[in-house]
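User: Here's a chain of 270 residues. Predict its fold as tokens.
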Amino acid sequence: MIHFVGAGPGAPDLITVRGQKFLEEADVIIYAGSLVNPELLQAAGEGCRIYNSAYMTLEEVLRVMENSEKEGLTTVRLHTGDPSIYGAVREQMEELEKRNIAYDVTPGVSSFCGAAAALGMEYTLPGISQSVILTRMEGRTKVPEKESIESFAAHQATMVLFLSSSMIGELAEKLVEGGYAPQTPAAIVYKATWPEEKAFICTIDTLEKTAADNGIDRTALIIVGEAVRYNGAQPTAESGDGRSPQSRVMRSCLYDADFETGYRSAKSKE
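Assistant: Prediction complete.
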């Protein structure tokens, strides 16, 4: 059996209980060494074979899986965050299916969840934003034309951008070109949940300066939209603050005293 496991965003105690159990039981672990916290490997049992896929091709990864299966061993394929988001897992699954090798998937905490935690923010605020777009800038991996940054920016929803911190100047231009105002609140979260985590609040027009001033050009998420204004992070004065001290969110209906649910009556009826 091959277990695809989400390692979580970085902190070793943010892996799921199930994922931790699979690591402890694994005979073979293939981990994404460029992003997975190596501390997670301490859960491996004695004699476990460990491979760093950062140095491997897809064919080499599959060869290890296939050989392990022939030996009757249990393999964990450890991916950063949640495997379903930029995890390149489907191509592995298709090859395993061709070889009649069984697999399952254990979800993980994505870095976009870790980034929200770092900022003390909620992506989906009543009256502000009820949609979250997870996307990336086009680099060596192409993005479908219909999913351009400009087309998504037109929606004015909360946008979380992966794998784009090395192109942050171009990103800011595309966001404004698509419809966001230059002063739209934005945030950069570097290595969410890791010990070296850093979070910066700014605006779209100060994104590039904020990244440059703090030496950030990789391993960071960029978050854009009005929802960023309502956060618990410390303002970044030198780069322009996307947060207003007077900002207050609209209360949700769910916990309003006059909102009736299947679990409680409205207080006004009482």
